[in-house]
Write a structure and sequence with these properties.
The protein has helices spanning about 1-20, 25-40, 125-135, 165-170, 185-195, 205-230, and strands at about 45-50, 65-70, 75, 80, 95, 110-115, 135-145, 175-185, 240-245. The chain is of the alpha/beta class. The chain has 2 domains: about 20-185 and about 235-254, Vaccinia Virus protein VP39 (Rossmann fold); about 185-235, no CATH class. Helix 5 (about 185-195) runs antiparallel to helix 6.
């Protein structure tokens, strides 16, 4: 039995090495790590709004908080949009447009809003609304793509947002940025999008050849350069993760 266990452990290690060398970690994993880490730092008992919560994937990491969810509809477990409220997933506390949430000013100690801005027609107005709902000194955790392909259509309005977009609108609506964290870099971005190209190659043989070249040569090369890269995340990334705090003395926003 012992040799079998050793062989199994050895096989797992080999698979892990191959996975690290020939594949890339989905950009959502880095975002999840950031969100979970930030949520853990919020003082227990504080009230948090998950704006555009969808399937409420981060709710399990808010057990120490008073969690409230908002969304314009319901999502099933495959991430597809549905207007059917009879689902197993929890119904959001607020079913509304994200830029018009029926709640009083200064209601929340923290607001989480991840990968939502690209799916709404009024992202600037949404930031204004989230600021209105935050208590002075409250924390906003915000993420969105920098450059992405259309997805979840017809609810897709923007391909991405730059650091300057966040700086302009967060400052305009009374929020002070504490950190802007890039997710990924140019090499990882190109690797991810190279893998997506397979879906556009209809010929099965050519698709196979393309996949072999990408997985065995192109992705490992890009991952190597990604590890030694120091500057490309200033130009091309998956997206930005922003932590901002509502200013204590904030005049009424217009």
């Amino acid at each position: 039995m012992i040799p079998i266990k050793k062989d199994t452990d050895r096989l797992k290690k080999i698979k892990e090495i191959l996975r690290n060398f020939f594949s890339i970690e989905g950009n959502h994993r880095q975002r999840d790590k950031w969100v979970i880490s930030e949520l853990a730092q919020i003082t227990p008992g504080k009230k948090i709004l998950d704006a555009g919560c969808g399937s409420q994937k981060y709710r399990p990491y808010c057990n120490h908080l008073e969690y409230k969810g908002q969304d314009f509809a319901q999502y099933n477990d495959k991430g597809e949009i549905s207007v059917d409220l009879d689902k197993k997933l929890p119904v959001p506390d607020y079913v509304s447009d994200i830029w018009n949430i029926k709640e009083a000013d200064n209601s929340f100690d923290a607001i989480l809003c991840t990968e939502v801005l690209e799916h709404i027609p009024y992202p600037g107005e949404t930031i204004k609304e989230l600021s209105r709902l935050l208590k002075p000194g409250g924390i906003l955790l915000l993420s969105a793509p920098f450059a992405c392909l259309p997805h979840m259509e017809p609810y897709f309005y923007f391909s991405g947002f730059s650091k300057e977009y966040y700086r302009f609108y967060l400052e305009k609506y009374g929020l002070e940025i504490e950190t802007i964290t890039p997710n990924g870099n140019a090499f990882l971005y190109v690797a991810q999008e190279s893998l997506r190209l397979r879906q556009f190659i209809q010929n099965r043989f050519l698709n196979f050849v393309f996949s072999i070249l990408v997985y065995l040569l192109w992705v490992p090369l890009l991952k190597f350069f990604s590890r030694i890269d120091k500057v490309s995340n200033n130009f091309l990334v998956f997206g930005y993760q922003v932590k901002a705090r509502k200013k204590i003395n904030t005049s009424r926003m217009t």
